[in-house]
Amino acid sequence: MKLFHKRLLILFSVALNIGFVIMAIVMMLHSPTASQHRSYQAILDIVRQLNLPADQEHTLVETIRQFRTTVEHHNQDLKKARSDVVRLLSVSGPVDRDQLQRLTAAIATEENMKNEAFEAHFIDIRNQLGNDKGAQFFTLLLAHIKAENQSHHR
Fold first, then answer.
1. What is the pLDDT of residues 129-146, one digit of tens each?
2. How far is CA 138 from the centre of its chain?
3. d(CA 58, CA 69)
4. Which residues are CB-contacts of 77 (< 8 A; sequence separation ≥ 6)?
5. Measured between alpha carbons, how far is 32 from 119 in angstroms, rounded to an integer?
6. pTM of the model as a whole
7. How far apart are the first and last CA of the chain?
8. What is the rounded CA–CA span in Å between residue 68 and residue 81?
9. SS3 of 60-102
10. Biggest alpha carbon–alpha carbon distance for the chain
11. Mind listing the pLDDT tens digit for each residue in 65-93?
């Protein structure tokens, strides 16, 4: 094999390896787990911006951490309920409409429970922080959400 061909193969190999590394980094940064971690860190940064007394900040962070676990459970339950619907629809033969309605009702119930948990959590945060700091927290959160939405649309 000529030296030119060897160099060309080495160049392609290096380019391919660089491409794989870049794609791995991009996929890691766009994975749901990384996104959830960045979102959680952003909320913790917002809490720090409030300049709360240490004990109040600790209590608030603990409330947020517990809520994060609650949301993860709701998301797992929703994923299972949706999988149950798909599983029912994947069986050959006629679809049992009553069973399908029960399964979709279970999804609606779980979504409602998740929404109620969000509402209770937001009220709890607002009560912990009071009017001024509570309004400041949600203003900062809204600004973060707007910035996230704008960065995703670029």
1. 999 999 999 999 999 888
2. 18
3. 17
4. 110
5. 23
6. 0.68
7. 47
8. 20
9. HHHHHHHHHHHHHHHHHHHHHHHHHHHHHHHCCCCCCHHHHHH
10. 77
11. 999 999 999 999 999 999 999 888 888 98
